[in-house]
Amino acid sequence: MKPRVFADANEPILTAYEEEVSGEAYFAALAEQHDGRASEALMLIAEMEVVTARLFRPVIDAAGLHPRSAEELVREGRDDAEALRGTSWTEFLASMRDGYDAYVTEFKGIRAAVKPDFRPHADLLIAHEVAIIDFARAELAGDGNSLSYLHRYLEEARSFA
Q1: What is the CATH number of the domain that holds 28?
Q2: pLDDT tens digit sequence for 50-109
Q3: Does a structural domain hold residue 4?
Q4: Do 46 and 153 contact (CB within 8 A), yes or no?
């Protein structure tokens, strides 16, 4: 996956927020398709999406942006997850490991574009994606502590003032 090209400076900010909201439904729906450790990890990632969206919302509000309805975003997330039904856990982990760097690049662009007061919010957006990638790498390598990347991000995000 390659970083997307956006029409203006606000589009990636709005897209990032909307994808966090839809991401909760996406990862929760994927968790329903798996069991055991995979389901646990996907539910943790869904929780990360909720926390990240909440922490990023002030950036959206300050920019005067208007996201699509939560209902529409949840439906989109669930539909995207359904399209992956039958994808193995290993295949999905590899897709996160190999593709989510594009989001990191996009989020770094957001960080550069936002007002200095909102850079910590963008840093959390970046950190959450890095945690998911690090988790996927560790899980694929058979690291029994791979979930620690997800837990560590959640602890960091929950302490964000």
Answers
A1: 1.20.1260
A2: 999 999 999 999 999 999 999 999 999 999 999 999 999 999 999 999 999 999 999 999
A3: no
A4: no
Reply yes or no on whether the pLDDT at 161 is more than 80: no
CA distances for 116 relative to 14, 59, 96, 150, angstroms: 18, 11, 29, 26
Q: What percent of the chain has pLDDT over 70?
A: 99
| 134 in Cβ contact with 149 (< 8 Å) | yes
Cα dihedral 42/76/156/145 (nearest 10): 20
How sure is the predictor about 24, in pLDDT bands with cuts at 50, 70 and 90?
Answer: very high
Residue 100 sits at φ, ψ, to 5 deg, of -75, -10
Work out the burial of residue 5: count CB atoms within 10 Å of its CB; fewer than 13 is exposed, 13-18 middle, 19 or more buried. Answer: exposed
Q: Is 2 left (phi over 0), alpha (psi -120 to 50) or beta?
A: beta
Structural domain range at position 77: 10-158
